[in-house]
Amino acid sequence: MSRTQQATRRQFLQSVAAVGAASVLCPAPGRAFGYESPNERPVFATIGLRNQGWAITSKSFRFADFAALADVDANVLGENVGKVEKAQGKAPEAYKDYRKILDRKDIDAVMIATPDHWHTKIAVEAMYAGKDVYCEKPLTLTIDEGKLIEKVVKETGRVFQVGTMQRTESGERFLQAIALVKAGRIGTVKKVTCGINGMEASPVIPVAPVPEGLDWDFWLGPAPKVAYRALPELRVGYGGGVPLFSNAHYSFRNWHEYSGGKLTDWGAHHVDIACWALGATDTGPSKVTPLDYSLPVEYKDGHPVVDDRYNAATRFNIRVEMPENVEMIITSEGDNGILFEGTEGRFFVNRGKITGKPVEDLRDKPLPEGAIEEIYGGKVSANHTANFIEAMKSRKQPISDVWSHNRMLEICHLSNIAMRLGRELKWDPKTREIVGDAQANTFLAREYRKGFEINM
To answer: Closest by alpha carbon to 183, among 403, 369, 417?
Structure first.
């Protein structure tokens, strides 16, 4: 790209559009709304490439050029450099250290798909480096990290998209569900159940040699220093080719040191849609009560007493008291999806279906024209990345903004804290603190390992 082309593209991205990105004309094939010239394609980099890292990168080739990739696993990095080169005809630069990407002035935005315990540090440093950010869900490991990200987004003016793509994709089923609730098709909402599945406990996982090419210390980053653990059996299917049981790779989701189990993995999707439908994206619950649950290891004062097995909850039923006397149930039982129940009906929605009498009634009584667009805030984008790039142009926050994400994710974090401590928690959504429980409030933040603090 010539210097003139670079200047044109950068001027374009930095300009503030007179109207919202979602209201402009439908784009030419392969471009986001408002992007009509190849010179306007933004330059991206992806940090963290396994599984979702590749998924969000490959979905973005139509809209952006990838100049760099970063991963602490040399094998994953090399494989993805080859795939990106094949897709776009030019190899991206490869880095183990993501900070080299943030130092580059030619990169407009970063996509972050590392394990959860890295999200906040990289996202904050990227914004201070002048980058817009697309970060996979769940955005944070703690509630206070969410507050920090909100502060930095406001301070820097960067555009920040969270990867809760159900807000954009899945055939607009979730948007239709929200529109049904908003249109009063089930009357007054009384209960919403979020089915997010459970997980299996692990056997004892022994210390094992670190796989060749993986920088284990850098993978741990802000988390406590521990030995790498793995069993030889390999995972198959999505996320396959790595140890089925380990404290890294795909299994990081099952450890509180790096993630929040199913509560933040799938809860970040379905609790998000539930809160959006309830109009609770700028507030929170008053109480979170663990009705029944199973933890795979013994806990003392909220901390696991062993470090050789998964420690996130395997089974749970949690009651959340939401505004307007709505009861939310988050459960590992039943079908994965969301059941909305009101005074005049009920319906169920997930990524593959939306069913129930209110849905059937749409044949004779469709939703008002423009109801979906009103929910979304304009024409629904081609995909979640397109919405992000449109927001980069307009300098308005995208459909999955950090404020609504953090509010709903607080419910998921509180659910985990309640189970770890074995008691109900009262929550003040104004101060964003747990009421009358000093011990529980210590779980709202975490200490970063020395040498991996956030550079602000």
So the answer is: 369
Predicted confidence (pLDDT) per residue in 80-94, tens digit: 999 999 999 999 999
- Amino acid found at 369: E
Domains of the chain: 3-170+378-401 (3.40.50.720), 173-346+404-444 (3.30.360.10)
Spatial separation of the C-alpha atoms in residues 315 and 295, rounded to whole Å? 7
The length of the chain is 456
Instruction: Read off the pLDDT of residues 312-359 as tens digits, 9 standing for 90 and up.
Output: 999 999 999 999 999 999 999 999 999 999 999 999 999 999 999 999
Given a cut of 50, the residues of the chain with pLDDT beneath it are 1-36
Cβ atoms of residues 350 and 336 within 8 Å: yes
- Confirm if 208 and 345 have CB atoms less than 8 A apart: no
Rounded CA gap, 392 and 390, in Å? 5
pLDDT at 38: 56
Query: Is this structure's pTM higher than 0.90?
Result: yes
